Amino acid sequence: MDFLRPASWEEALAAKAEHPTAVPIAGGTDVMVEINFDHRRPEYLLDLNRIGELSEWEVGEENVLLGASVPYSAIMENLRTELPGLALASHTVASPQIRNRGGVGGNLGTASPAGDAHPALLAADCEVEVESVRGSRLIPIDAFYTGVKRNALAADELIKRVHIKKADGPQQYSKVGTRNAMVIAVCAFGIALHPETRTVRTGIGSAAPTPIRAKAAEEFLNAALEEGGFWESRKIITPSIAKQFAELASGSANPIDDVRGTASYRRHAVGIMARRTLGWTWESYRGEGRSSIEGVA
Amino acid sequence: MAGTTTGTPTNVTQKHSKGGIGESMLRPDGTLKVTGEFAYSSDMWHEDMLWGQTLRSTVAHAEIVSIDTSEALAMDGVYAVLTSDDLPAVKNYGMEFQDTPVLAYGKVRHHGEPVALVAADHPETARRAAAKIKIEYRELPLITDEASATAPDAILVHENRDDHHSGHVPHPNIVHRQPIIRGNAAEAAKKADVIVKGEYTFGMQDQAFLGPESGLAVPAEDGGIDLYVATQWLHSDLKQIAPCLGLPEEKVRMTMSGVGGAFGGREDISMQILASVLALRTGKPVKMVYNRYESFFGHVHRHPAKLYYEHGATKDGKITHMKCKIVLDGGAYASSTASVVGNAASLSVGPYVIDDVEIEAIGLYSNNPPCGAMRGFGAVQACFAYEAQMDKLAAKLDMDPVELRQKNAMSQGTIMPTGQPVDAPAPVAELLRLVKARPLPPEQQWTTTEGSDVRALPGGLSNTTHGEGVVRGVGYAVGIKNVGFSEGFDDYSTAKIRLEVINGEAVALVHTAMAEVGQGGVTIHAQIARTELGVQQVTIHPADTQVGSAGSTSAGRQTYMTGGAIKNSCGLVREKVLEIGRRKFGSYHPAWANAELLLEGGKVVTDGGEVLADLVDVLEDEAVEIEEEWRHRPTQAFDLVTGQGNGHVQYAFAAHRAVVEVDTELGLVKVVELAVAQDVGKALNPLSVIGQIQGGTVQGLGVAVMEEIIVDPKTAKVRNPSFTDYLLPTILDTPTIPVDYLELADPNAPYGVRGIGEAPTLSSTPAVLAAIRNATGLELNKTPVRPEHLTGT
Amino acid sequence: MRVNFTVNGRQQEADDVWEGESLLYVLRERMGLPGSKNACEQGECGSCTVRLNGLPVCSCLVAAGQAEGSEIVTVEGLADYAKHRDDSHPGGGCGSVCGGTSLQEARQWQAKGTDGQTGEGGQLSPIQQAFIDAGAVQCGFCTPGLLVAADELLERNASPSDADIREALSGNLCRCTGYETILDAVRLAAARQEETV
């Protein structure tokens, strides 16, 4: 095994171009587990810790440019207003120690359906900025996940940052695990209201081969909200709309049975979370909602 | 051996003037443990040492067709690659049955059985070499449950058994069977107005001690070996290790290293023989440390069980009879399965008076992971089932569940189903009263001025509910556990006490082989020595095999047994000291003739408090030393047909009330409070007593809602050998645990103490289950309760 | 490969490090600092928690090479670290919102405990002493990681609520205590810290 320590982004791209099998390591929270448990022996480890810009973020007019290595704890602390859904998701990631190291670049690179950030990224809408010595490109999040633990990255590309739409409305995130902290998702659900475009976007984790959006549920809800004039009136969403939204969300899941949970439970739980998070965001939108304390963040 | 060994235990010294029994003395090893200097077995290091690595079976049941180690041996940095053929002497070991191969030969009987060993100069080299060993298996049919084990044509997990139970078991795949028949259950059932039946499943729990199996074996110039390991019982290890190394016991010198928790999982051998074999073979010190994955295969687990129960009662709530069958899966090797069967059978009735019972407990051999000792030892599984039955019975009688339990509660004088009278206090009804009398925690504690604090809700940080779907439930349970080794076992401990003057002060040295696994035995030992010898300064010698056996740190027995041995040896030392005093000063004062002289505050005093002499003057440069074995009262084996016999030494009792909040839509649980009441006999160190009770309670909570080793029934392979998927309660899963303890002295025990470590693990699980049933109205006959069970998905 | 970093204020160097080695392994096996514990090596127990450039992290998940040039504090250096912090910012610092455990509750603890016969000489940090006094140490294997995490909590929040303590320590498993005495210890350390302000 070789340990590559590029001091700059350009050096990192050059190294990745030279050694396409090199495994990037930033927070180490996935890669090191695989090495410690002898599941993986990469030929090259490509350490990204020395590249300061990966740990930086920039709040622009429309987007937040979030460096791939910005730790979850920093997102929780600094970006709760701009990225409320991702901040909530960050708070559910593993433990405080892991949140101090891990960032969305790792989740995206691993592309495990259980990655906590995915549903929030899908719901908020974002583009992943990837780069190689050949140049840079933006991959829409909807086109990023290509299979079980597979993503749209070419072998010589590295994830630089994510361009995430700043929240224009309430966002929520829920994750089911069989422990009250430090748990991998049995399944997860993210929702973002986008009052500017009068749309609702969603994300589902751990309930399909890849992170997915509940598209049928979104389409139904978008139409129902439009039709009923809910965006203007801000009136309470009827239980029947919420129920159908939940059922459609549940229906879009395509989960499996594993040691963490059964497929039918996952489908069920996605529905419950969809209904609840819709309720929370909508109440918030109505401007009279309860808020939720998210710890010391 | 040249070179230095670091991390060897040092003497810990407590300097104190008071600090006798009954005080919350602080741990003598506390400072070392908070500064990181305490040497655990995985911290051992030796110049020039090698790293040992096992290769374990990837299948659960197979013939070993061939093993090819040549590629591994050829690697740079590899010093030895061993299979069973290379072992120097006896190839099997075991605590009760010698049925466990050091390295598998002929066949493998469970997933993760060690087959080969590597020693190399770096752990990664050792791992790469192990991966190059080629093993060809021919898979065999699997025995995974009672039906497959006892089928007439079942393949035998062990052929040609010749152990002491092989003669009486109904099938060679049954390790042991213990029936208990008392009264006439069939006849008594006719008097019952209501009858409840239930089938219960208890999942396989892991001890999950945090300090992995590890240690250092150093070959010595005399051909022997110095072994630094973490274990619960040095002398039992020694007895198993020496024959496998082909060495006499005196050439295997064992020293206890720091133990990172045990809970039963270190009662059997793990890496001890493996590291020693490699060290003898290579002539170099060998360190072995299992990682967490390997640890799941490196020790036995709590027996999973199926339990079938029937209880009857009259309208007024008097239990008429009980019938039960308990099937414990012992897995591929016996470990302590036979004793677990004895415990499960003899405690299956619970802390209740039931005159007519028909009980059968069996332990299976299967191709599942081997199971053995874990905190609660057979009584845990039974308690889960009989307490569920009590709630069912109460519901059917439309009675308060606590009242039903109190009405049938045993007390001092009750005769156990084994015919053994309970001859010490048994305050079962009072313990239930205590937990019930506590005020309930306030409702909806998650509500704050700013909204819902998810940390106080089911789902916790995962933000799954802000109060939606959350229902509270309350449940009760009580249990009975035996203390000490039972069924005629010659259970003893040894204490060597030395009293001498050092730097002008009388100092006591306490030397035992007691395994300090975290429970605080070392604190208590010093307290006892202070009380008995009236000295300020007590030194606790590291535990090793240079002193007689202390027995196991298990079964709640160490304070009773090694505490008893220290008290006894101190008494003998005191007699010798007084003899010296009489010789030297007897003529100075008539009180020396008094038989009731005491040692207090470093002086010889009369029972009236008159000082006769300073210990320093009595002893001068003479050292008084006593090493003596001490036994509890003898017990008897259970009759193999009727189960009758005075099999147990002592009983311990605890009761819990659980308050839970369940998200009924998502099936997630938050345990809000787990109140405990326990009779501890005498609290020698109240702070330690509370720590034991709270710790035991949380291990019971874990198995109620999250802990289970999941074994695939189709392959008998473990599916979740990691802390990612074998979940332990975090501090956010753990409730407040208020403790009430009673001190009703057991007249048979030193100071009246009662073993305390195990009882709280029993009733915690069924209390949580009862509370979840109360919240949801569901039957819930399985541990752990999973979201699927609560949502019907 | 060779790695260099500062541990507990001292420059350390290790040679012949295998590229897959974790910071934890290098600390324990190459630098003679076995205080950080190897309980799961997958970031699920917190026993190996160290401060890496100030942040608590699982040292089992930091590749040794990634720690190049970093400042690391382990349990072995915790007392010194706390002392330097107190020297530069006496009293720690609790703003206007000190809601947590009352001093009275903490004093009840002192009344229940005995005098601290362990840790004489005052070389321990307040959180280390509190763990001993409150009975938060049993087998002690989780203790080093918990101490590093709890010390960092008290550094940024001098009066944490019980929920804050639970959250901050939710990445540290303990199998012996049931956590109640660990909560007591953190409350006690916080109260003592307040007392010295």
Automatic annotation (TrEMBL), chain A:
Gene3D superfamilies: 3.30.465.10, CO dehydrogenase flavoprotein, C-terminal domain, Uridine Diphospho-n-acetylenolpyruvylglucosamine Reductase, domain 2. It comes from Streptomyces beijiangensis. Residues 1-169 form the FAD-binding PCMH-type domain. The lineage of its organism: Bacteria, Bacillati, Actinomycetota, Actinomycetes, Kitasatosporales. PROSITE patterns: FAD_PCMH. It comes from the Bacteria. PANTHER family: XANTHINE DEHYDROGENASE SUBUNIT C-RELATED (PTHR42659:SF2). InterPro entries: CO_DH_flav_C (IPR005107), CO_DH_flav_C_dom_sf (IPR036683), Diverse_Substr_Oxidored (IPR051312), FAD-bd_PCMH (IPR016166), FAD-bd_PCMH-like_sf (IPR036318), FAD-bd_PCMH_sub1 (IPR016167), FAD-bd_PCMH_sub2 (IPR016169), Mopterin_DH_FAD-bd (IPR002346). Pfam families: CO_deh_flav_C, FAD_binding_5. This is FAD binding domain-containing protein. Keywords: FAD, Flavoprotein, Oxidoreductase.
UniProtKB/TrEMBL annotation, chain B:
Residues 1-13 have a biased composition (Low complexity). Residues 1-28 are annotated as: Disordered. It holds the Pfam family MoCoBD_1. It comes from the Bacteria. One of its GO terms (molecular function) is oxidoreductase activity. Residues 35-141 form the Aldehyde oxidase/xanthine dehydrogenase a/b hammerhead domain. This is Molybdopterin-dependent oxidoreductase. It comes from Streptomyces beijiangensis.
Automatic annotation (TrEMBL), chain C:
The keyword Iron applies. Keywords: 2Fe-2S, Iron, Iron-sulfur, Metal-binding, Oxidoreductase. Gene3D superfamilies: 3.10.20.30, [2Fe-2S]-binding domain. InterPro entries: 2Fe-2S-bd (IPR002888), 2Fe-2S-bd_dom_sf (IPR036884), 2Fe-2S_ferredoxin-like_sf (IPR036010), 2Fe-2S_ferredoxin-type (IPR001041), 2Fe2S_fd_BS (IPR006058), Beta-grasp_dom_sf (IPR012675), Diverse_Oxidoreductases (IPR051452). Residues 1-78 form the 2Fe-2S ferredoxin-type domain. It comes from the Bacteria. Coiled coil: none annotated. It holds the Pfam family Fer2_2. GO terms for molecular function: 2 iron, 2 sulfur cluster binding; metal ion binding; oxidoreductase activity. This is (2Fe-2S)-binding protein. It comes from Streptomyces beijiangensis.
